[in-house]
Design brief:
Oligomer: heterodimer
Number of strands of chain A: 28
Distance between the termini of chain A: 61 Å
Order of helices and strands of chain B: EEHEEEHHHHH
Number of helices of chain A: 19
Largest interface: A-B, 59 and 55 residues
Strand order of the largest sheet of chain B: 2-1-5-3-4
CATH topology of one domain in chain A: Aldehyde Oxidoreductase, domain 4
Largest sheet of chain B: 5 strands, mixed
Radius of gyration of chain A: 27 Å
Shape of chain A: globular
Distance between the termini of chain B: 39 Å
Number of strands of chain B: 5
Structural class of chain B: alpha+beta
Shape of chain B: globular
CATH superfamily of the largest domain in chain B: Beta-grasp domain
Strand order of the largest sheet of chain A: 3-5-1-12-9-10-11
Largest sheet of chain A: 7 strands, mixed
Chain lengths: 752, 162
């Protein structure tokens, strides 16, 4: 396909794109949230400052919710507004609206939520005492298990057994546009418009809590300034809050726009993790047993944690073959803010552990980390931990060749030799190189895509153009542009003749959520199918051309003629998801084809550590991946580069600090994300192995870039530091403070 | 919007080349005056504390975080916002993938414009250093830096400021 610029690119570059808070809404009130001051307890009183004239404010609490006080998601355990008890600091309790934002801020400060505290769980790694148990017998939200072969027997007979424990911290999404949502009532319909990834998630949450059917609720996506998973489920909360305020205000529009500090403190983050590996290898260095224990902090409510755990454990063995595997995963409740979706969805955590561990295993048996990986990388015909045979539609990628290409792009050999020489002579700088190999299953896990039953509609417009109607949102990743390209290719049009409809639940069918790297692969494929059906419809009933004979000009003419014959109607076709043949997964036993296909990647990091400050800096970074066919090279490269930098931030800089369950560095002043000057150019190459069931031959691209960088960077730090001071970094973010502690411990152990 | 005691103050400034007079609360931020009083919503609020740069405007030709500037401080000064930038100049940024979600982009473009219009800056600083005041969470910065590089180069080739 021809290179194509982002459709809305110039509007964004000139500031003309109008996000929710850029659009004046006549008569609009501002809404704000009164939140819990403590991490757990019983609400004893909500007191309103008598010095404030409350008659001019709209005030909402849990008693104003028409339907169940539940956030509709997997388990519906999270209240819309706390009633009786609170489970985390910043949990929403009361909503207030007023037209003057300054008076509103003062009013919010004038509400005191009094709580009789109960013992919170503030460290998910420590088994709860009886008085801390809030769910089941031990706060477990979900346990999952994958078993293949006999891991204990294989460990007993292994030539070497190597253990390791790896930890990752919470990560904030830092979409640059904070959460923003408006609601109003039109006739009998509650309308919600705002920043979001998944309009139908918001619709379902509104239907449930407001006790309305879908004809009386409408959800429209506004241009969305970044999501990364942070706007997957959380916008449902803002939507319900804005709608409740609007309903209480007689249908007047109410807008809620979070300040950055509120957004950082109160909304979801990446799940913290602790992963333990026990690995057996034979005398040649082949993996014979992988026993992996995954523990995730779920935070105060279930939200999406069971699914994050699922994706995490399925990816926990990395892209390697091992005949005997036992992965046991558990996500537990704590009294932190609920953890939620974040780019990669559990897979970055478990693959950080795996890839750091692979280096340590190679080191322990005296093998080169690249040679060790090449020996163990999955070959077509071999099986994954769930027993899925890689091959057919999941195969075709030479993962060893892909790694070689990354090594070449990252100048592995040259930089390794240079680093060794450099480290011998430099007084305080140490350089190293690190590698990682990763995989990422695109689309929903197992039978998830079947349950989603996604639909896309395409319609011929009166002027002959084609409109694509899908619920998939543009949030910066390029949905609109790529959808236009895919439809244009399927219809024989120029992309400029394709209209991509704004996701509005009154207009577009449910194409599933905009998550899981599924948009181009799954929904893009539905666009192709729907275009094919439209052609067929018009071809058989219309122009006299045979089935599928219409294309480009003839299709355009057929659409215009159809409109002339059928005034007031439109020719349209809808496609519904069907799984690729032969893909089977047992949801109960976790056996079978966890994903229809996988994207594969390899990263090389070149890092420099300053021994005076213990700060690590990435000097060079190379990433090579097979994401199937690349539909738009500039957008795809941008996805990889952005994901790599977000992952470098997670690896080195980004630390959520908590005190008594509250995030205390909820500002961009002291929660540090990478600037342009903190990262090098990210070198990117693609290996294209087309996926027959993906839109335009594509697999997923959104999340894979988040998987590989953190372990590659930490492996490079270990390479830089290990041979001299023995520092063995196993936790991220590897901040200077944390690295200094490691260095000091190593020096102490060496008697320096 | 007035003071607590009802007083507003008059501020005259040059905005995007034209004289403008506004009556504001003395505590009002330039960003709010631009967005909510004058309807210039191209400048975004990403953090409200001068870290992210999404609200960057040029004050007398120099980048400033408009969330940290009081409108009252703009008296007699010249302010340029993203609304003054000609779309036709931004081709190199479009082609390089300098924008994804677009929320940081107006601020990025204003800083880039400052870099482009002051070639001397590039003698002492790298493009990455010059752009370090604008946080972007989508692009990983390559699209921005490559686009700015091409923008600056195209200028150099055509022999002067555009």
């Amino acid at each position: 396909m021809l290179p194509m610029h982002r459709l809305e690119g110039l509007a964004k570059l000139t500031g003309a794109e109008r996000y929710l808070d850029d659009e004046p809404i006549p008569g609009c009130l501002w809404g704000m949230t009164v939140r819990s001051p403590v991490s757990r307890g019983r609400i004893t009183a909500v007191k309103f400052d008598p010095a404030i004239d409350w008659s001019s404010f709209i005030v909402v609490d849990h008693r104003d919710i028409p339907g169940p006080n539940e956030t509709y998601l997997i388990e519906n355990d999270q209240p819309v507004l706390a009633a009786g008890c609170v489970r985390h600091v910043h949990e929403p309790v009361v909503l207030i609206a007023h037209e003057d934002r300054r008076l509103l801020r003062r009013a919010v400060a004038g509400v005191k939520v009094e709580v009789d505290p109960e013992p919170p769980v503030l460290d998910y790694r420590v088994p709860p005492r009886a008085e801390q148990v809030q769910r089941g017998s031990d706060n477990t939200i979900k346990s999952l298990r994958i078993a293949k072969g006999d891991v204990e027997r294989a460990l007993a007979s292994a030539a070497r057994v190597i253990e390791g424990e790896y930890q990752t911290g919470a990560q904030e999404h830092i979409y640059i546009e904070p959460n923003a949502m408006a609601a109003w009532v039109e006739g009998d319909v509650v309308v919600v418009r705002g920043s979001m990834q998944c309009p139908y998630y918001v619709l379902n949450a509104l239907k449930h809590a407001l006790g309305r059917d879908e004809r009386r609720v409408r959800v429209i996506q506004a241009p969305t300034g970044g999501g990364f998973g942070g706007k997957e489920d959380y916008p449902s909360t803002l939507a319900m809050h804005a709608a409740l305020l609007s309903l209480k205000a007689g249908g007047r529009p109410v807008k809620i726009v979070y300040d950055r500090d509120e957004d950082m403190a109160a909304t979801t983050k990446r799940h913290p993790s602790r992963v333990r590996h026990t690995t057996g290898v034979d005398a040649d260095g082949r993996l014979t047993a992988m026993k992996i224990d995954v523990l995730l902090d779920g935070g105060a409510y279930v939200t999406l944690s069971p699914v994050v755990l699922s994706r995490g454990i399925i990816h926990a063995c990395g892209p390697y073959f091992c005949p005997n595997v036992l992965v046991e995963g558990r996500v537990v409740l704590s009294n932190s803010v609920p953890y939620g979706a974040f780019r990669g969805f559990g897979a970055p955590q478990t693959q950080f552990a795996c890839e750091r561990h692979m280096d340590r295993v190679a080191g322990a048996i005296g093998m080169d980390p690249v040679a060790f990986r090449k020996l163990n990388l999955l070959r077509d015909g071999q099986t994954t931990a769930t027993g899925q045979t890689i091959g057919g539609i999941s195969g075709g990628t030479d993962r060893v060749a892909l790694l070689d290409r990354a090594l070449k792009l990252g100048a592995w050999e040259e930089r390794r030799e240079e680093a060794a020489a450099f480290n011998l002579t430099h007084p305080y700088l140490r350089r190293g190189v690190g590698v990682s190999c990763v995989w990422h299953g695109a689309g929903f896990t197992g039978n998830g895509e079947v349950y989603l039953d996604s639909k896309v509609q395409v319609a011929g417009l009166a002027d002959g153009r084609i409109e694509v109607r899908a619920a998939s949102t543009e949030m910066g990743q390029g949905t609109s542009t790529v959808f236009a390209q895919i439809a244009a290719a399927a219809a024989g049009y120029d992309a400029g003749e394709i209209v991509v409809a704004t996701p509005d639940t009154a207009v577009v069918p449910n194409s599933g959520p905009t998550v899981a790297s599924r948009t181009v692969m799954v929904v893009g494929r539905l666009i192709e199918k729907a275009c094919g059906e439209l052609k067929q419809k018009l071809g058989t009933r219309g122009s006299g051309l045979g089935v599928g004979g219409l294309n480009g000009d003839s299709l355009r003419r057929a659409i215009v003629e159809w409109h002339a014959r059928n005034p007031g109607r439109e020719p349209a076709a809808t496609a519904t998801f069907e799984p690729p043949p032969g893909v089977k997964f047992d949801d109960e036993r976790y056996v079978g084809d966890a994903y229809a296909t996988y994207a594969w990647g390899a990263c090389v990091a070149h890092v420099e550590v300053d021994l005076r400050t213990c700060a690590a800096r990435v000097l060079d970074f190379a990433s090579v991946q097979d994401i199937g066919r690349v539909i738009n090279p500039v957008l795809a490269k941008g996805q990889v580069q952005g994901g790599v930098v977000q992952a470098i931030g997670w690896a080195l800089l980004e630390e959520c600090r908590f005190r008594d369950g509250a995030m205390v560095n909820n500002q961009l002043t002291n929660y540090i994300i990478p600037t342009a000057d903190d990262v090098p150019p990210i070198e990117v190459e693609f290996v294209e192995v087309p996926y027959a069931h993906g839109g335009g031959g594509a697999k997923g691209v959104g999340e894979l870039p988040m998987d590989g960088p953190a372990p590659a960077v930490l492996n490079a730090i270990a390479d830089a530091m290990g041979r001299e001071v023995g520092a063995d970094p196993m936790t991220i973010p590897m901040t200077p403070e944390r690295l200094m502690t490691l260095v000091e411990a190593a020096e102490g152990a060496h008697g320096v | 919007m007035a003071c607590e005691d009802g007083r507003a103050m008059e501020v005259r400034l040059t905005l995007n080349g034209k004289p403008v007079r506004v009556e504001v609360d003395p505590r009002e931020r330039l960003l709010d005056t631009l967005r909510y009083r004058l309807g210039l919503t191209g400048s975004k609020e990403g953090c409200g504390e001068g870290e992210c740069g999404a609200c960057t405007v040029l004050m007398d030709g120099v980048p400033a975080n408009s969330c940290l500037v009081l409108t009252a401080q703009c008296r007699g000064r010249s302010v340029r916002t993203i609304e003054s930038v000609d779309a036709k100049a931004l081709g190199p940024m479009l082609a390089s993938g300098a924008t994804q979600c677009g929320a940081c982009t107006p601020g990025v473009v204003m800083t880039a414009l400052w870099v482009k219009e002051n070639p001397g800056l590039r003698d002492s600083h790298t493009l990455r250093e010059l752009m370090a005041g604008n946080l972007c969470r989508c692009t990983g910065y390559d699209g921005i830096i490559d686009g700015l590089h091409a923008w600056v180069e195209s200028d150099a080739r055509s022999g002067g400021a555009a």
